[in-house]
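#help-structures
NK: newbie question, is this the right format to request a structure? protein is Autophagy-related protein 2
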Amino acid sequence: MTVNVGTDFASPSLEPQDLLIQLEEEEVIHNSANARPTAKPEIQEDKPPPPPIFFRSFIFTPEVPIRLDYQGKRVDMTHGPFAGLLMGLGQLNCSELRLKRISYRHGLLGIDKLLNFVVSEWLQDIKKNQLPSLLGGVGPMHAVVQLFQGIRDLFWLPIEQYQKDGRIIRGLQRGANSFTTSTAMAALELTNRIVLAIQTTAEMAYDMVSPGPSVRRRSRGYKGKRRNYNQPSDFREGMANAIMLVREGLGETAQTIVRVASEEHEQKGVSGAVGGVLRQIPPTMVKPIILATEATSNVLGGMRSQLAPDARREAVHKWRTQD
């Protein structure tokens, strides 16, 4: 700090050093007089969390039936080999479970405890009482269950009808109808699964011996239209779809052979054309197997729809068709 003092105002009795000291003391006193006491920072205390909700009673009603249908599309190993194979190859068909009715009146503190209690009750009930109905839809087990259900109805429905009103003939008719329908549906489903397994194996063999894209991507006919047949509504429609599919498949195979032979002939002459035809022999031998399995699957689907029209409607609403 620099202080400039004029000669007219200076006291003769004070030395310059004394004046500087006096000015510094006055400045300190002035600053201390104008200084205001600083407010102490307020300490914000953490508020306690709100108490959890207390549920005096909990009632879940009525029971909720759930039907599971699942078909694995691809194998994904990101979640481990076992989980990937299970998700890619697993199939569920009409697996049923029920979320049972729950009534609890002893009080539960907090939503977490409530959810844990409900899930625990449902899991215990599924493990104790619902495993047969849940595992009955794994793979081909649904068809086997249908077969045994038909055999059971053949003997049980006449007894039940006789105990109800004494009309045993009516019971025999009901039992025979249930046995015929259940047995036929089970046989068709098992046969269709075998046909699909043969088709998958033939498609893999075709992809091994044929160059180019997979046979599943070659779904365009020789006119460029994609062959896409919905599930037939009856046996007649299934037969018509099967005939049309075989006709288009054979035409596409013949056109492929002619196209390859002409392309090779333009590049290499007669030897190239003969070589191109010889290279098409392995996939040409496998292609009729694929066409036969697809046609058989259409015929079986038509028979199944004719025996159980409700099953076709359910399948149409259940599975999403690809455009």
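mod (FA): yep, format's fine, and the tokens are attached above. The two ends are 89 Å apart (CA to CA).
NK: thank you!
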